[in-house]
Model the fold of this input.
Amino acid sequence: MSNVYLVYFSPTGGTEKALRLLADAWEGEKKTVDLSLRDAAARTPAFAKEDVCLVAVPSYGGRVPALAAGRIKELAGNGARAAAVVVYGNRAYEDTLVELCDLLTEAGFAVRAGAAAVAEHSIMRQYAKGRPDEADEKTLRGFSAKIKAALESEDPAPAFPGDRPYKQWGGSKSYPEADDTCVGCETCARLCPAGAIPFDAPSETDTAKCISCMRCIAVCPAGARSLDAASVAAMAERMKAVFATRKEPELFV
Ligand SMILES: Cc1cc2nc3c(=O)[nH]c(=O)nc-3n(C[C@H](O)[C@H](O)[C@H](O)COP(=O)(O)O)c2cc1C
Done:
């Protein structure tokens, strides 16, 4: 029996949302593999050649987030057919899709299709706000049937945009901090993909481990975690031009 897997690294949920729309054409139960979990046992099912895997990551600086790349390398594709999906915040995704395709191929997946979609920028949330929106939903659901057909065919992987060697990215230095409304519930410490929040001091952040994914802000029930608003506003102002045009979802089959 074949399984349909949704495999995703989605710290603030935008990537997962776009992926679920792209999975619309598959009826029935879909299994999920959440690459943001630190528990390695939960991330490594044995895929079979008959399985179909839709694998999605956000673009960080035009690359696959290094933490997600490491976790994809631990997967065993065993010849399962895969679609590579990149979700980005309406700036650009540069080499992310080609890198994801390479990672999946090296891990033993047969990549047959791909897509790029836009979701709200998880740092500068004024950009791509509310996306994927209604128009995106329609487009992504429409892509789904085409991706399914490509995965059922024997056609080789399409050409993905992007360069090798991949662009260099130094990482983000936007580290969330908790204010005194932190109730010490440890939700952020449990869900931080990088293990950067100490259980014994959940209002702190280990900046050597933090990957700036913003999940702690998204999951905090007290709304205690945030980035320095003035720095985010300055960064958004500096980068305004590259966000000015609305980017549309793209399909690669
Ligand atoms: C550290 C970091 C780097 C990012 N780099 C880019 C980028 O280079 N281009 C872009 O368009 N969006 C970028 N984004 C925005 C994310 O790709 C986008 O918000 C994505 O939907 C986040 O996925 P998630 O909601 O599943 O966490 C970045 C976000 C973060 C946190």
In short: The helical segments are 14-22, 66-73, 96-106, 134-152, 187-191, 215-219, 229-238, 240-243. Residues 82 and 139 are 20 Å apart (CA to CA). Residues 10-15, 58-62, 87-92, 119-123, 172, 212-214 surround flavin mononucleotide (CB under 6 Å).
